[in-house]
């Protein structure tokens, strides 16, 4: 079950992990959706972090997630 949160520590921890992974593989990205709204002062709970990134380097992220966690969400595979 997905848990919505307004806890800045949990949000920061999740975002930090994601950003470190993107930086490890030199992937340019843009935070959007609820996380971007939070940066501008929104108070709605978050259940996900939406990110646009360079598609041609995405295989690095998928390989890492598959090897480390044996999991990739089918939603992450949808075309843009």
Protein model, in words:
The chain has helices at residues 8-24, 33-39, 58-69, and strands at residues 29-32, 50-53. Strands 1-2 form a two-stranded antiparallel ribbon. 45% of the residues lie in helices and 10% in strands. It has one domain (8-73). The two termini are 26 Å apart. The mean pLDDT is 78. The protein is built from three helices and two strands; from the N terminus they run αβαβα. By secondary structure, it is mainly alpha-helical.
Total E-strand runs: 2
Structural class: mainly alpha
Considering DSSP H and I runs of 4 or more, what fraction of the residues is helical?
A: 40-55%
Strand line-up in the sheet with most strands: 1-2
What about the largest sheet? 2 strands, antiparallel
Low-confidence stretches: none
SSE run? HEHEH
Q: Domains counted in the coordinates: how many?
A: 1
Task: Quote the average pLDDT.
Answer: 78
**Shape, please?**
globular
Q: What's the number of helices?
A: 3
Residues in β-strands, percent:
5-15%
| Cα-based radius of gyration, to the nearest Å | 13 Å
State the distance separating the first and last CA atoms: 26 Å
